[in-house]
Amino acid sequence: MIRAATITFAVMVGLPVAAFEPVLPDGAQQIYAEAPEQRIYALPTGPYEGGAVPVDRVPGDVRRRSWRITSGFGGTNALASSFASQLLEQDFDILYSCDAAACGGFDFRFDIEVLLPPHMFVDLADYVFLAALKETSAGLEAVGVLVSRTAEAGMVQVTDVGPAKRVTQKRPKLRPVSATPIAPNVSAADVSTLQAEGHLTLGDLVFETGSSKLGTGPFASLEMLAAFLNEDDTRRVALVGHTDSVGGLDANTELSRKRAVSVKQRLEEAHNVSADQLEARGVGYLSPVASNLTEAGRSANRRVEAVLLNTE
User: What is the pTM of this model?
Assistant: First the structure.
């Protein structure tokens, strides 16, 4: 069983509701909640490398909270995957996620903002970090989630800030822009591939890692696909989103679905393709085209494909 994290403390002291209200196991006990402070939060956006962790400096009302989970804790990865799904459901874009090894272990942990014991404990060999941003009409909201454990319990720290009007990158993000190695030049041969093989990777689309927002384009693959569909209104395709294996299945499936939806919306709004000719689905990391053990392979796996649905 899970429940929404209590906001009783905020109500009692008249504080605004936080940007992100996590849903936690029933055994979660809030052990720290501070009043919001107007300052800058250094939101980690990559692993410890070259002597520091790259950050986005987000100004606004910063609040830190923490919980201890004495029962119902299924492990750091499972809980972090749940938080990632919740963030995506609340329209956050996940900028970065990592486990202890990928983050940078000791160095990452001691280069980011972490509450002191007893409010937060971090097992240097078993933690997961998530960074997320969301655009709202009032400005940007940012969330940093740290999940770890002690020998007896799970530990969660949530730092959220917002709304902020600007974000300043302290150092360039180390996570590359997602791209597939397939060349962006799209020709009639690609239409033939779609018809002959039944599917085609839309190879020039660009998404930031962890983001469902499609770049501004223009994208030749979408122009080709739109021309193909607009030529015959009986033609139908499913747009299928895929991810690499970084993170949990639920979060990746939702992210891949949102990417496919973004492509569908672009085809409808910018290329006048009928919604009746399009479907959008996400399968997460379940259909890789390359090994997830290398960055090149993970890059290839982050893609959107067009699957022809016509049977004749």
Answer: 0.53
